[in-house]
Each structure stands twice: as C-alpha cells, then as structure tokens.
C-alpha cells in the first residue's frame, strides 16, 4: 500500500510539473521580447508570432490530443508531448534567426497541447471522491502560480544573465524541469490499458476540428490587442458553419456505432457544457489581468520586468493559498464557493481600479497588494473547484476527450480575453493623449477592469447551471 501511494505521489509530481511548465511558457517569454528583437533583428510581426504561434498550436491540438490519449494511452501521449516540448525548448534557446525561433515555439506549443489534456485525465484515473477534489485543488494552485510567476521569472533570468543571454535562459530554464518530468512520467505514470474496442481514427473529424479552430483562433491570436479588421470578423464567423458541420458529422458517426473525435454524449452533458462555457468566460477575464497590469506597470510607469512580476505576486500568493484549501470548503458548501470566488475577484479588481483612479503622480505597488491578494484568493476558489465540478461529470473512456475540450475552452477564453480587453485598453489609451503618460495608462486600465468585471458577472450567473455538489 505504501509503495502504491509513493508511485501515485511521484506520478502526480510529474503531471503537476508538466502543467506548471506549459503555463509558465505562456507568459515568461513576454518580458524577453525586447532583447529578442535586438539579438535576432526580428520584425514586429515575428515578435507577435513568437508568442501567438505557441498559443495557437497549443489551443488547436488539445481536443485531438485528449482523444488520442483515450485511444493510445495517456502515458504514451504525455511522454511524447513532454519530449517534443523539451527538444523545442533547447532549439528555441539556440535559435539564430527569427524564423527558427518561431518554428521552435510553434512546435513547442504543439508538444504542450499534446501532453496537457492527459493531466486532468490521469488525475481522474488515479483519484476519486474527496481525494479528487484535493488533487484538483493542487492543480489549481499550479495553474495560478505558473501563469502569474512568468513575468517575474523572466525578469529575474534577464537580470541574472544579461540582455544577450537572458532571453535564451528563458527557454533553457525549461530543460531541467522537463527532464525531471520526463523521468518521473516514464517510471511512475499508470501504464496504458489496451482499449476493448478496435481503435478507429476519425480523419474527417480531425480535419474539420482543426479547420474550425484555426478559423476562430488565428485572427484572435495574430491580431492580439491591435483590434479586428472586417476580414477578421468574417474569418471568425465562418468557423460557425464548420463547427455545425462537425457536430452533424459526430452525431452521424455515433449513430453508426463509430468513434467520432468529439463525442455527442459530452455535448449533451449539460453540467459539463456549462462548466466548459464558464471556464471560457472566466479565463477571458483571468488571463487578461496580467497582460494589462504588466503593460501599465512597465510602459506606463517605466518599471522593470522584475518590478512588474513582483507587483503581481500577491495575486499568485492568494491563488495558491485558496486553491490548496478549496476542497475542504467545496465539500461543505458546494457551488456557492464558486460564487464566493467570483465575488472576491470582482472586489479585488474593483480595488485595483480604485487605486489607479486615486493615483496622483506617485505610485507604489504596495497599494495594489491587498486588492490583488483578494482577487487571487477568489481565483483560487474558482479554478480548482471548476475542474472538479465539470470533469467529475464525465466517466470512462471519454475522460481524455472531455479534458481536451475543457482545456480548449480555457485557451479560447484566454485568447479572446487578451484580444478584447487589450483592444479596449489601447483604444482608451489613444483617446487620453491629453493626459500625462501615467494617467493615460491608469484611465485605460480602469476601463479594461470594467470589462473584466462585466465578464465576471456573467460567470456568477453561469455558476447556477453547475450541479450543487460534486
């Protein structure tokens, strides 16, 4: 029994490290972009793709990776994805041109997209009941830390290794973490159980899903916060009939007794779909917080990357503390905990907005500490229980596909959140040119916070569609 528990613990460490490093890489590179521009003589378009290429590949492959894990083994897909991520981290660190760095980042995102859906699925395979909620609490802490600590970690590495080599260290820092992850995964992740049914590969479903997600995400990620053109709206709207056609194909395949890429049973699971939509909307608000605060802090107030990371640290601390203890609360009060979390995030962001509103030319990150800590606590009470509420409604061989769909919703939410909130931020900034630079950024951040709060109100309503208890 003790040996079994030890194996489970080491397997858990492996997948938590994978979750940490994949989300760390969504934010850690941001602070290195100025040095990359100088070192590789990169254009602004190439710089955008160093970030967006990773996010696009990550988001597009998630559902397919989840289904592949169902069919061919979560351990196999996890190890393959981690190995690909490792190789591309090394090639990115040694990149000698903007083109080679973009290629490395895209394939690195592909690797992250392959192994990330296996994390939730492996957790559900190994744990159940109250233990499942506890582990999702740990995962929520890891997600919060991985996302929030990126700018600070990147700033520290650049400060330590200098402008010439610091940006390369941002990629090389992955290597020791991923090596440990890989070894633990090979030794301790549960072995693949051969499926009872004959494995079928839904090629039309794969092509349809890839096309639909590309049409939806490419304009959002490539345009970012620069605002959408008419062609971008047309491109995104065109994804709707492709998604509908994919749904029709999935239903048709299921009626014939075949195995579609997206199971219609998942789409008929109301609590699962509600949780997926809630996750999409929440991540639209959650991820954009770091983007607009980092831009305001560094560009508006002329602070360093390290200072920016330290300023946001209270959010990460609050998120870790709350997520680690969320399971004991969720077992007592059920989905009301999610409502409490949303309210705390709204209060925290309102506090941040008020701090900037009262700014009078002298600013301190200490003024943001309490509001960000409050918002972080709220976030920690949301992310982990949301995983539990949503994914606990799925059993059996559909867990990998469900995990892929759930994580895809988060990536879509993050992309749209940064694009929409960032667009509001910069458009407001353009209309405040009469102000001082710092005041203009303060006004823009306030407006962006209002958008985030509106998204969180939608989250509050969506929580009612989740089950009362796990």
TrEMBL record:
<dbReference type="GO" id="GO:0022857">
    <property type="term" value="F:transmembrane transporter activity"/>
</dbReference>
<keyword id="KW-0812">Transmembrane</keyword>
<dbReference type="Pfam" id="PF07690">
    <property type="entry name" value="MFS_1"/>
</dbReference>
<dbReference type="InterPro" id="IPR020846">
    <property type="entry name" value="MFS_dom"/>
</dbReference>
<keyword id="KW-1133">Transmembrane helix</keyword>
<keyword id="KW-0813">Transport</keyword>
<dbReference type="InterPro" id="IPR036259">
    <property type="entry name" value="MFS_trans_sf"/>
</dbReference>
<dbReference type="GO" id="GO:0005886">
    <property type="term" value="C:plasma membrane"/>
</dbReference>
<feature type="domain" description="Major facilitator superfamily (MFS) profile">
    <location>
        <begin position="11"/>
        <end position="470"/>
    </location>
</feature>
<keyword id="KW-0472">Membrane</keyword>
<protein>
    <submittedName>
        <fullName>MFS transporter</fullName>
    </submittedName>
</protein>
<dbReference type="InterPro" id="IPR011701">
    <property type="entry name" value="MFS"/>
</dbReference>
């Amino acid at each position: 029994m003790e040996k079994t528990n030890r194996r489970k613990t080491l397997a858990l460490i492996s997948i938590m490290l994978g979750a940490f490093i994949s989300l760390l890489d969504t934010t850690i590179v941001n602070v290195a972009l100025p040095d990359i521009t100088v070192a590789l003589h990169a254009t602004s378009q190439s710089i955008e793709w160093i970030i967006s290429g990773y996010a696009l590949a990550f988001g597009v492959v998630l559902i397919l990776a989840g289904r592949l894990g169902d069919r061919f083994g979560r351990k196999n897909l996890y190890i393959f994805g981690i190995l690909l991520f490792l190789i591309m981290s090394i090639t990115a660190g040694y990149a000698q041109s903007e083109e080679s760095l973009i290629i490395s980042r895209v394939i690195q995102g592909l690797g992250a997209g392959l192994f990330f859906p296996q994390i939730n699925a492996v957790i559900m395979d190994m744990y159940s009941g109250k233990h499942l909620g506890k582990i999702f609490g740990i995962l929520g802490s890891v997600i919060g830390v991985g996302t929030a600590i990126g700018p600070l970690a990147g700033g520290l590495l650049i400060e330590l290794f200098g402008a010439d080599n610091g940006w390369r260290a941002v990629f090389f820092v992955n290597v020791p973490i991923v090596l440990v992850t890989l070894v633990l995964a090979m030794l301790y992740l549960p072995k693949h159980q051969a499926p009872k049914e004959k494995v079928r590969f839904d090629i039309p479903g794969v092509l349809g899903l890839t096309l639909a997600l590309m049409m939806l995400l490419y304009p959002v990620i490539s345009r970012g916060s620069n605002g959408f053109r008419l062609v971008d709206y047309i491109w995104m709207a065109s994804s709707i009939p492709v998604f509908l056609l994919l749904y029709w194909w999935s239903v048709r395949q299921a009626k014939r007794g075949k195995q579609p890429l997206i199971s219609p049973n998942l789409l008929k699971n109301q609590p699962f779909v509600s949780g997926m939509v809630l996750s999409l909307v929440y991540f639209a608000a959650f991820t954009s917080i770091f983007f607009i605060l980092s831009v305001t802090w560094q560009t508006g107030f002329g602070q360093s990357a390290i200072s920016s990371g330290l300023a946001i640290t209270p959010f990460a601390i609050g998120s870790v503390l709350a997520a680690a203890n969320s399971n004991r609360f969720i077992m007592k009060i059920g989905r009301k905990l999610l409502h409490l979390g949303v309210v705390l995030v709204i209060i925290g962001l309102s506090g941040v907005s008020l701090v900037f509103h009262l700014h009078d030319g002298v600013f301190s990150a200490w003024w943001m500490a309490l509001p960000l800590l409050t918002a972080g606590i709220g976030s920690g009470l949301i992310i982990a229980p949301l995983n539990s509420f949503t994914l606990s409604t799925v059993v059996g061989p559909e867990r990998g596909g469900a995990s892929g769909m759930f994580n895809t919703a988060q990536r879509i939410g993050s992309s749209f959140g940064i694009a929409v909130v960032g667009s509001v931020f910069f458009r407001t900034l353009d209309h405040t040119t009469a102000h001082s630079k710092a005041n203009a950024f303060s006004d823009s951040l306030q407006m962006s916070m209002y958008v985030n709060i509106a998204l969180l109100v939608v989250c509050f309503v969506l929580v009612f569609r989740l089950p009362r208890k796990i």
